[in-house]
Inverse folding.
């Protein structure tokens, strides 16, 4: 069965152009929604739930289906694994043909190559920073201001005149932070 999927990002946009082309392509059922790709897309979820082997999903353009290249390739790879075809009317991709699978796999390879390049550049940048003595990540331990508070928390806690929640209220700290400060004090014997 041929299923169409049409989507626009806002309520004031029109689906007519996509719907007309999907009908011309022979779609027997068209799922349509007016929602940003960054949000939950209930119609897409319904479509994914009813797809069976030998079905084909047709979209007007690739960006109507996936919000990112990674998501798009994940969806289409899932389709291929389940024996479901995919066609994009305006991007000349049709995974029901050998040429379409080749084009799609070339796109997927290029996207993976780009991700690998980014990963390599990131690693090289971190290594260069480390060679210059810069280490990434959150600084270890407590800031000078937090150390002063930790000592005060320890002092009041030692007096046993206040409970942990009361100490937290006094210093405007969460209960977990009070315990963290006390543990820091024990570790550093200050």
């Amino acid at each position: 069965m041929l299923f169409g999927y049409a989507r626009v990002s806002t309520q004031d946009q029109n689906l007519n152009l996509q719907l007309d082309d999907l009908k011309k392509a022979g779609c027997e059922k068209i799922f349509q929604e007016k929602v940003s790709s960054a949000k939950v897309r209930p119609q897409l979820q319904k479509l994914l739930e009813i797809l069976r082997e030998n079905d084909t999903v047709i979209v007007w353009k690739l960006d109507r289906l996936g919000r990112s290249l990674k998501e798009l390739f994940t969806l289409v790879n899932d389709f291929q694994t389940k024996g479901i075809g995919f066609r994009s009317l305006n991007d000349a991709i049709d995974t029901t043909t050998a040429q379409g699978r080749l084009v799609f796999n070339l796109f997927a390879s290029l996207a993976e190559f780009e991700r690998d390049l980014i990963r390599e550049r990131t690693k090289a940048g971190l290594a260069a920073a480390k060679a210059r003595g810069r280490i990434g990540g959150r600084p270890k331990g407590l800031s000078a201001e937090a150390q002063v508070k930790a000592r005060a928390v320890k002092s009041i806690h030692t007096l046993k005149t206040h409970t942990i929640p009361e100490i937290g209220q006094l210093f405007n700290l969460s209960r977990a932070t009070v315990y963290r400060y006390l543990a820091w004090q024990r570790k550093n014997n200050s």
